[in-house]
Design a protein that fits this description.
Blueprint (H helix, E strand, L loop, with lengths): L1 H11 L1 H27 L6 H4 L4 H11 L21 H12 L1
Length: 99
């Protein structure tokens, strides 16, 4: 039905179809020009600046979280808090903690 109506309109009013096509072409050209203008007006992204690293900050964080094994220079008293039910379990935990 729609196809028949279109054919009838094209046959009876060819100028209207042409006008519609010209309007559509004009709208598309305007849209494309605007999109191109927006693309050219986009500020340049300075990727070097975005991903610039502060070496001092990295070193500081690295030093803060670097693994340093505990070295005991001299004997000291250590308090161990544990919930061992018997003395054998307590001794195992204590030995692991101290050595």
């Amino acid at each position: 039905m729609k196809d028949k109506m279109r054919q009838l309109i094209k046959k009876e009013f060819p100028w209207q179809e042409q006008r519609h096509e010209l309007q559509l072409k004009h709208i598309n050209e305007k849209h494309n020009r605007q999109a191109l203008e927006d693309f050219h007006n986009t500020p340049d992204l300075n990727l070097d600046q975005m991903f610039k690293t502060n070496e001092e900050e990295i070193d500081e964080i690295h030093q803060k979280y670097i693994y340093t094994p505990f070295k005991q220079a001299q004997e000291s008293n250590v308090i161990i808090l544990c919930a061992a039910a018997n003395e054998d379990k307590f001794n195992v935990i204590m030995n692991k903690a101290l050595y």
